[in-house]
Amino acid sequence: MELDLTRITWPVVAVALLVVVIGFDLLGAAVTPVDARGQPVLLTAQRWTAARLARQANAETEALVKDATELRRLLEQEHPDPIAAMLLAQRLYAEHRTGSTATVAARQALIAAAEVAARYAVGAATRQEAIDAYHAAMASIETLSPEPSATPTPSRQYLPHLQSP
Question: What is the pTM of this model?
């Protein structure tokens, strides 16, 4: 199969290039971030890295909130299942032992709270110790949120009927 390029003329090439340049211009205008004054911001390697790290920290924070909800459900039970508590603690340790430095304190606090909850489930810790560890983890997770939410989240509900004195 032969490709015949003799039929392509310079005006056709010029129009095609003009369409491509205009398309890139429109795409760039649509995706380029702007500062508070409405001026375009140059995307440097540092800004790309900062944006990537912010996305990673936000994803980790969402995962921490989701896992804290599971821990809360476990602690709301009068007699939590020891096997379920142990499996939850192991899963939280496996999932949250590494991550961004921005979330390290919250990750460690949630892992510690899950460990205390597992010990509570087998009778090696008191219910109040487990609740206090959960409260500490939630306080640490809340510091990661850039703005407080108007809707109640698991971190805002703190096991209200089990408040520590």
Answer: 0.69
Chain position carrying tokens 């508590």: 85
What residue type is 71 in one-letter code? Answer: L
- Written as one string, the DSSP assignment of 104-158 is HHHHHHHHHHHHHHHHHHTTSS-HHHHHHHHHHHHHHHHTT-SS--SS--HHHH-
Q: Are 117 and 75 in contact (CB under 8 A)?
A: yes
- Burial of residue 132 (CB within 10 Å: 0-12, 13-18, 19+) is middle
Domain edges within the chain: 57-159
- Answer for the pair 116, 133: CB distance below 8 angstroms, yes or no: yes
Residue carrying structure tokens 């909800």: 69
Give CA separation, 114 vs 1, 2, 3, 8, 104, in Å: 67, 68, 66, 69, 15
Identify whether the C-beta of residue 89 lies closer than 8 Å to the C-beta of residue 117: yes
- The tens digit of pLDDT for each residue in 95-115 reads 999 999 999 999 999 999 999
Residue type, 86: M
Phi and psi (nearest 5°) for 7?
A: -80, -15
